[in-house]
Amino acid sequence: MAKKNTTIYDISKKLNVSVATVSRALNNHPRISQATKELVVNMAMEMDYKQNNLAKALKSGETKTVGVIVPYINTNFFSSVIRGIEEELSPHGYRVIICQSHDDADIEKKQLNTLLHTQVDCIFISISKNTSDLEYIKKVISTTNTPIIFFDRKKDIPGISTITIDDHKGAYQATEHLIKEGYKNICHFSGDQNLEIYQNRLSGYISALKDHNLPVIEDNIINTGSSIEEGINAMKSLWKRKVKPDAIFSASDFTALGVCKEIKNLKLRIPEDIGVIGFSNEPFTQFMELSISSVDQTPVMMGKVSGNVFLESIKDNFSGITIEKKLVLTPMLQIRQSSSRKK
Amino acid sequence: MAKKNTTIYDISKKLNVSVATVSRALNNHPRISQATKELVVNMAMEMDYKQNNLAKALKSGETKTVGVIVPYINTNFFSSVIRGIEEELSPHGYRVIICQSHDDADIEKKQLNTLLHTQVDCIFISISKNTSDLEYIKKVISTTNTPIIFFDRKKDIPGISTITIDDHKGAYQATEHLIKEGYKNICHFSGDQNLEIYQNRLSGYISALKDHNLPVIEDNIINTGSSIEEGINAMKSLWKRKVKPDAIFSASDFTALGVCKEIKNLKLRIPEDIGVIGFSNEPFTQFMELSISSVDQTPVMMGKVSGNVFLESIKDNFSGITIEKKLVLTPMLQIRQSSSRKK
DNA sequence: TTGTAGGCGTTATCAA
DNA sequence: TTGATAACGCCTACAA
């Protein structure tokens, strides 16, 4: 029934040597003769020996496993970041556990506890929309040895490294691009302002307007969620205004898509009558017959950098230093048809 | 420096009881007095005790962790399946480790070994395009206790449960739908024929033609990959033929997208001149201005069912039975503009 | 160069 | 009802 794995003890018996010798041979320990080493290694191969990671982890305190908590795994952005983390860490022998918070702070806390419980070596988090209990995370930092790293959706907490993109800059460039294309009355569809990323996109929009001497109009900043539906509805009510916009910079691609659909519905032309630009560079934006301009967040790169920050922190740890890094990646403006009015 | 976790040993010392007592109290063991149990539980709470999963796993042989191997994690299909697996298993205390094979059999084998090595309780795999070494997997099955479960991209191996969708049926319905819309000369862009899913889509296409007394023409079955580019090129060369097709059933949505782009380029109309239908129900298919018909694979459901098959197998295992399940989910045809010629 | 033995934190068996 | 102790499989001082 139960198929037992061979252990170093089994090998030691077979070879009439001690388990210590076997362990040393298998770990390339310097203090062992070449001859016995080969003997052991061959026997291990023959007996199909597989090191028991559990025992090793129990002894060493390192599980060679990291955890990632994201709102949902099946979105282009988060799955791409996870891909980056996996590809950066996998070659170094780390496994990646994924958890979903369903964009809920309570579930997020539970997942965090589970990962702590699993004794992962590091936890990567992109926080949920309604996360506000920073004390809890601070407590984790101060009472455990498990480093936490924030990516994209972060909060500023001492001791926590963060990897983000420059949302302000991305939004600034997007808005500036619209201005240069000759759009004058640019509205911004902002996302959930509890998240820094959306705050920054909003501030980038405002900065660009100011720098180009355009008025910042309160009513032109419309608080939407990130769905197609909300884009449609917001555009609908916007078009009932006396003074109509000639461009929309949306903090979300899905909302931008909704905008495009409604514009078409209103029998207006993109980009001639109205310019549109989104954020995230979702795959569909480039597939559309009328492709949608967007801001690429380089998610795979973000994942790789996040993984690398962890790897570097291990090195640093040997010298007893803990460094808090704040890395900011540069977004990439993708100009497509929906915002290219000039030839 | 090192923040040590409290262990049951710490609690036992504090309370002047044995570790065995502490362990029993914490595990709701029947043979313990209510009084001491409360004493221990409260002290554990006070000392912020967290059970060490590693030690428990080492003792019990169960890690409460499963592994998933997919070609790439950042695709809609695979990330959705993983979401389903996570959501089914997480409530039962399981963690999910994700691995990418990069659609390569060698890497896949390495990842499989890593997971075995990590002593996960189950491994879910959607095999890579060029996986052919079935002996290796059979060996894993026969020499370890770790169950393997295939989803979507499978091979038939005794002892391995599989969860797939009925690709034949999905393809059949898609083709039949085209026929009913009045298309007569339907071409099929098939995927990699090393994978069963694509074989089945091809056979579904053929069956539908036969059942409706349409000729199965060898030249109408075009072996493409799954990229936009290949869709464009295939369509291009197809249009140089004397006898031109009036519909394309593509085994991939991306190829279908390429087809649509090329059709537009050729100044032809969809669906009037040519009907198009893809497979997978990628998000973009419904977002397009001219939405693309497709076959939904219900990936989240596939993940949940996969997870459930594992959970059930644990129950069965208590009775010493190992059941090999072959579950087939029903695909959902999504009819959209690209194939709706009739009103 | 090799062996002995203790410990990582739990659970389970056997006594008491 | 409780306690002592032996595993689980590995690594690593310390001895030899």
TrEMBL record, chains A, B:
One of its GO terms (molecular function) is DNA binding. Keywords: DNA-binding, Transcription, Transcription regulation. Residues 6-60 form the HTH lacI-type domain. It comes from the Bacteria. SMART domains: HTH_LACI (SM00354). Transmembrane segments: none annotated. This is LacI family DNA-binding transcriptional regulator. It comes from Epilithonimonas ginsengisoli.
